[in-house]
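Hi R.,

Here's the input for the pyridoxal-5'-phosphate complex you asked about:
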Amino acid sequence: MKIKFNKIYKSNKEKKYIMDVLDNHSISGDGIYTDKVIEFLKRKYSIMNILMTTSCSQSLEMAIRLAKVKEGDEVILPSFSFTSCANSILAVNAKPVFARVEKETLNIDINSIKRLITDQTKAIMVIHYGGISANIDEIMKIAKEHNIKVIEDAAHAIGAFSNGRTLGSIGDFGSISFHSTKNITSGEGGAIYINSEGIDKNNADIMHQKGTNRFEFLNGNTEKYVWKGYGSSFCPSEILMAHLYAQLEDVEKVTEERLKIVKIYNKLVEEFKDILFSYTKFNTESNGHLFYIFFKDLDKANKFKKYVNNKNIDVRTHYVPLHSTEFGKKYKNDFLNYHLEDDIDKKLMRLPLYPALTDSEIEYICKEIRNGFIYCNTSL
Ligand SMILES: *Cc1c(COP(=O)(O)O)cnc(C)c1O
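And here is the predicted structure with pyridoxal-5'-phosphate in place:
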């Protein structure tokens, strides 16, 4: 048996909707499938304002600009995160300030945030790792006290919640990814949720429409559209939105199937928790985006990986903490101790997790994962 790390979900409706666009509509953006996607997300997840984008990276950059983060400002984010998070901060010449993550969830650590806040802090960027919520209520409280904005990077988190609220809808901004590595996809794609009343929605529309008031024009409120301010091209093609809509209609089914597998893996690794530093705990509000195991010991991690790879099971490590990369080390802040993040990129492994896994494949993975644990724990 050969087990791939990921296979994208297929709903069988993608072709039908894409053909509908090709046969009956314009393939550029802001058409009926964009509207369908936005209405779906608004209704299902109680989101006030949504703009679709071509990626979560673009959504993060919009959020940083809309939060009015400027040159010299500081933005706190976990070092264990994706490059796009830090890049969005560099895009406006602000400074990424790296925080630690907590052991239980690998989400940003609250104490770390408290220690890093200065007069220059303009925003906190929160990643909901693997679709499991960060301690968002506590973060919102700290942000209010200091009058700073919260940007939720909910790239992993479509269909995931915290106390009934959809992830991405709680901070001032939420940023979603529909990249093909995520639960629901248009290949490339994203969305930005604009949640707080204090954000100039008109400014967001202008930024989204290449710096023009084209939205007013599309709504028939002006005869022509003109340059109004800073903007860029964030708008996804209708072909992408047709693909996305076909998948979104199945979001609950996808989540359910993923969580079923998470539950099985969770039970399996519980037996071996003495050799693990942490691992994904089953959580009914999560979306089963990923399942990770984090070894205490580097040698055991290497042995485990070698064993399961030999059994043709593709397990993957994850982010190299940004402060420990050659480019990122200039943003290392020395009063923080990063021991949790040391070697996390070699000690953390994600298991194959997607709805297309068959029962016999899951059985095979579980058998060999167990053997891998035993092997790395007993061999010299
Ligand atoms: C995937 C991912 C992104 C980037 O998403 P794109 O849509 O590919 O730009 C950003 N942040 C996190 C945490 C991600 O996992």
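One thing worth noting: The radius of gyration is 21 Å.

Cheers,
M.
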